[in-house]
Amino acid sequence: MSTTKRLTADGMEEYFDRFSKHFLNRATAGTDVEITSRELGDQVLAAGAHLIGITYDPDTQALEVELETGDHRAYRPKEVWAVEEPDGFIRAIEIVRDDDSSEIVRMRRPSAPRAD
Fold first, then answer.
1. What is the residue-level pLDDT of the chain in tens, covering all 116 positions?
2. What is the number of alpha carbons within 13 Å of residue 65 lying toward its C-beta?
3. Most exposed of 52, 84, 96, 113 (fewest Cβ within 10 Å)?
4. What is the pLDDT of residue 62?
């Protein structure tokens, strides 16, 4: 059963490093990224993109989702929520910005080894 947890800025760097190393080291995962806001509605930024990694830089307070099609950054997120499976795989992340718009990142488990 999945659990939803609110992530804190002081723990995000280690949390996402651990996830990326454990689940994405030799494989990619299909990832969808969408933005929801009152002004723009629901906008899909990426669909089925290969996820390379997720990082958080505490110095710049930037959360970065690294995709093969390009990186997606959120600076100084107001809130970050993760839906995590029992083995630590992150199924989804919600990034809430200061203007209350949300970015939702949905990930599928890696299916094939990535060519190095």
1. 899 999 999 999 999 999 999 888 766 668 999 989 888 888 898 999 989 999 999 999 999 999 988 888 999 999 999 999 999 999 999 999 999 999 999 998 866 555 55
2. 26
3. 113
4. 96
CA angle, residues 43, 54, 63, in degrees to nearest 5: 70
62 in Cβ contact with 73 (< 8 Å)? yes
Please list the alpha-helical segments (H only) found in the chain.
9-24
Residues 26 and 67: their CA atoms lie apart, in Å, by: 14
Query: Which two tokens mark 93?
Result: 């992340």
Structure-token pair, residue 16: 């996402």
| Fold classified for 3-113 | Protein Yojf; Chain: A; (2.70.180)
Distance CA(1)–CA(9), nearest Å, equals 25
Sign of CA dihedral 42, 3, 89, 75: positive
Amino acid at 53: G
| Residue 14: φ, ψ to 5° | -65, -40
